Amino acid sequence: MWMITYYLLGIILLPGIIYAAITQSRVQKTFNTFSKVHASTGLTAREACTRILNQAGIYDVQIKRVAGNLTDHYNPTDKTLALSDNVYDSTSIAALGVAAHEAGHAIQHAQGYKFLKVRSALAHVSNFMSGMLLPLIIIGVILSALAYTSIGSYFVIGGCVFFGISVLFSLVTLPVEFDASKRALANLTASCTLDTTEVKGAKQVLSAAAQTYVAGLVVSILSLLRFVLSFILIREE
What pairing do the DSSP bridges indicate for beta strands 80-84 and 62-66? Predict the structure, then answer.
């Protein structure tokens, strides 16, 4: 019965899922639009990254190509900055904006940006807990069904805590991503990689991408709400 209630309350996630789909569509549309507009400097995304990092005094970050579409990311563990196939060699405003954003993460890491440290720590905890979440829920439900209600409740409450960590991770991600975009726009101007008009295009791309992280937070909160409500409802029956 608990699982039935849980799945029925899946409707709670609908607004978040719709919002996430809209934001993802907007990101792709905006990226595609500015992928057709090339920077006057003729710099590739890889070259722009190198220029921005060097200007910040960073010379130990490896820039590499990674397969996929918009799979760009910075890994603080081994100091590698990965640019996707459609970004790496591109001279478009969209590609340079994305590359500068990832360079912004590398600069955050080099400068010890506190929210990046917190997110990195939470990422390890969140990955571990995500693997433990389903077993906890199943054990809690089974124990509750066998009349071990109090013990089962502890397992379910543990599931709520794990969901809470996921929400906290999504929340901490926001300032990290917003700050990286802010740095990107400032660095694109300071390094003369884009002119004032071109930076406005990069800003549209990064603003659209930022909304995907807001959508991720909304979905995390709704998932936690769904879990808690289902638990409360089943306890009242």
Answer: parallel
